[in-house]
Design a protein that fits this description.
Pathway: Quinol/quinone metabolism; menaquinone biosynthesis; Quinol/quinone metabolism; 1,4-dihydroxy-2-naphthoate biosynthesis; 1,4-dihydroxy-2-naphthoate from chorismate: step 1/7. Belongs to the isochorismate synthase family. Catalyzes the conversion of chorismate to isochorismate. By secondary structure, this protein is of the alpha+beta class. The protein has two domains: 171 residues, 4-Layer Sandwich (Anthranilate synthase); 260 residues, 4-Layer Sandwich (Anthranilate synthase), CATH 3.60.120.10. 33% of the residues lie in helices and 34% in strands. The chain has eleven helices and 23 strands. The chain is globular, with a radius of gyration of 22 Å. Bound molecules: the ligand C=C(O[C@H]1C=CC=C(C(=O)O)[C@@H]1O)C(=O)O and magnesium ion (MG). The site of magnesium ion has 6 residues, from strand 15 and strand 23.
Length: 459
Amino acid sequence: MAILYQHKIREQLHLIEKKEKRPFISWTEEWNNVDPVYFFSLGPICSFRERFFWADRTNETVYVGLGCTYVIETEEKEDRFHTVETKWKQWIGQTAFYSNKTETVPILFGGFSFDPYKPRTEKWRAFPHAKMVVPAVLLTSKGGKATLTVTVRSGQSAETMEKIEMLFHLLHEERAPLHSLPSLMKYEEIQTEQWLNAVKQTIAKIRVGKFDKVVLAREARLSFADWVEASAVLGQLREQQPFSYLFAFEQEGQCFIGASPEQLVKKEGDACYSTCLAGSIRRGKTVQEDEQFGEWLLRDGKNLHEHRFVVQMIKEAMEAVCERVDMPPSPQLLKLPNIQHLYTPVVGEHCRVSSILSLVEKMHPTPALGGTPREAAVKEIRKVEPLDRGWYAAPIGWMDTKGNGEFAVAIRSGLLQGQDVSIFAGCGIVGDSDPISEYEETKVKFTPMLSALGVGQDE
Ligand SMILES: C=C(O[C@H]1C=CC=C(C(=O)O)[C@@H]1O)C(=O)O
Ligand SMILES: [Mg+2]
């Protein structure tokens, strides 16, 4: 099967290259189903130096990208979303699209930094303020049906084909097990004292009316005995966090990865969707305790307050561009394996914007990651938070050639850098926050990444 495909793709690309005058060729074909995490794991073995992974909360849409045929990246601050949009349109205009018996279109995948005005540290050097890529090979799985898209620069298909041939060869062989996780050498929470002080100061400032809400995040660092391979972590996240977005974006051997429950925005034609997620409590140890915690969260003034700011902002942002916006009048509970949240889904109809990036720009950062008022809160985070957030808490996702797409908020995430890993977690500070409870909340939010790394919470 794989051998057949290989010849077919090579032949097709060759024919197209001969007659096509455009700089890029993108060719899509129906394909046999393959485990996406396994597909992702084969990238480096086939000399693809970049890779990404995306699965939405229901696993309905899964994308795996290997290699990089076209990169859009910018260090611009104000204009970054606009620049990506313009370059994407230019690329679409330069590309010849071919497909065989499928409606699937190629996508652009990537993300943004949380705050382009925060000075970048060495840790995030491979992650500019905006970076989105068109992969050389894209595996798309939609509703259980798979397609493969090969995108090449015209005249350069031979180089990509060599790697693809290797990929097909490996897929044809008996499946090798995923990498195992190395053992933990060191676990360290970073600048906890400074973070707690920042929380205390922020609470005081909120109490005198300087802000309504500010989200403050912190970092923990882990060192392992060996290289931490992204596919091993991804495999664990997939098992342990079944109702979250799974994402990974690997560049220069560094991989930003996570399992986020939080949708920033999705656009499908003229409908758009978002979720308000803020307000948290851990899961109970028994069914009864778990229900008690949930009931408490639904009634707790401080958490409802935290949540309300997010609802207000998302509602306003959607109302500005949609004819109709629907949402339930009060939050529901979203129960995840380690934590429960207050949750309000939002649906916008007859959306007037043509590209998801305009919605991303409007909505980032929501008060679940930044605060209220937005500008003042982000400035305060920049000043007092002892952390370079990089891509943590920022938009990550995809868009297609029609301007549709979906972005999650990259929380419950970490950065894999060889044997070292940084993980991040934040929480919404309001006037009646208690620093120790907020500290505990961030600990619970570290759990998904720690478990995926094979680390127990008390290590
Ligand atoms: C900032 C994070 O969570 C946000 C999302 C849900 C609940 C939150 C909270 O209750 O504080 C946070 O706003 C994080 O997980 O790092
Ligand atoms: Mg909270």
